[in-house]
Amino acid sequence: MSHPMFKLAHISDVHLGPLPRLSIRELASKRITGFVNWHRNRRKHLFGDTLDLLLDDIKAKQADHLAVTGDLVNLASGMEIQTAAEWLKTVGDPLHTSVVPGNHDAYVPGAYEKAMRSWYPYVKGDRAPAEWQEDQRIFPYLRIRGQVALVGCSTAVATPPFAASGFYSSRQARETVNILRAAGDAGLFRVVMIHHPPIRGATSFYKRMIGIRRFAAVISTGGAELVLHGHTHLNTLHWLRGHTGPVPVVGIASASQGVGGLKPRAAYNLFTIAGRPGAWELKAERYSLNDNGSGVDPEGFDILAT
């Protein structure tokens, strides 16, 4: 690539474990279903050392920035949220790490607010108040790093048992369009971060994103160069119609998925962004956990847009 300018790493669905001990009161909610699911399924395949292997490889590749698209925790207990806040500090400083929440981060009513307060340095925009404020609207946010505009959106809402859907509001859509237009006028490469896949049919009905058509209108009207998401625990590539051409929509496997599960092994994407407005170059490289879980290997790359 000519004149490489920015390396952006993307991970998602961290699901930090193990689960802490929960009180009867904490389990007397939707958390009981997640608690059972964790011990029956996810506990067997989600491993902290797998996540560490990915993060070490990302650092070795000298990424300029890390995007984390949600589900840092499992049941959104207070202890989990605080543990995730401490984990973020070990990953990187807020200048080089951007987070958007997932459905597990808003697992029960009240959890979303606790998580955003605790993770605030990593979810606030460049012009947001320095300190968390009650009833503050965080999303969408804008962070500018070099010639890259990182636009964080949220689909995280508390849902009933056996549901994992997300919601993208009309208010958020209007504000996202304005941000994208302004960033485009400023000559920036626009990356939109969101948890749920904004693609119809990308996941089952009870896990879907409500507001997919609204989000598609945002991208076609406001414009973007790249959309990143998680939620499905799959390595995927879809496309949305953009303001001037097709926009790649990229999903990634869970960053904690070990060997032997039904879903793909843990992986991260590394995007190299170069060029200039009207002539951007975007290279995507995927790195995943190897067959024996001892390291991270490349899976190849694609030029997604020029």
TrEMBL record:
<feature type="domain" description="Calcineurin-like phosphoesterase">
    <location>
        <begin position="7"/>
        <end position="233"/>
    </location>
</feature>
<dbReference type="GO" id="GO:0046872">
    <property type="term" value="F:metal ion binding"/>
</dbReference>
<dbReference type="InterPro" id="IPR004843">
    <property type="entry name" value="Calcineurin-like_PHP"/>
</dbReference>
<dbReference type="InterPro" id="IPR029052">
    <property type="entry name" value="Metallo-depent_PP-like"/>
</dbReference>
<comment type="similarity">
    <text>Belongs to the cyclic nucleotide phosphodiesterase class-III family.</text>
</comment>
<dbReference type="GO" id="GO:0016787">
    <property type="term" value="F:hydrolase activity"/>
</dbReference>
<dbReference type="InterPro" id="IPR050884">
    <property type="entry name" value="CNP_phosphodiesterase-III"/>
</dbReference>
<keyword id="KW-0378">Hydrolase</keyword>
<protein>
    <submittedName>
        <fullName>3',5'-cyclic AMP phosphodiesterase CpdA</fullName>
    </submittedName>
</protein>
<keyword id="KW-0408">Iron</keyword>
<keyword id="KW-0479">Metal-binding</keyword>
<dbReference type="Pfam" id="PF00149">
    <property type="entry name" value="Metallophos"/>
</dbReference>
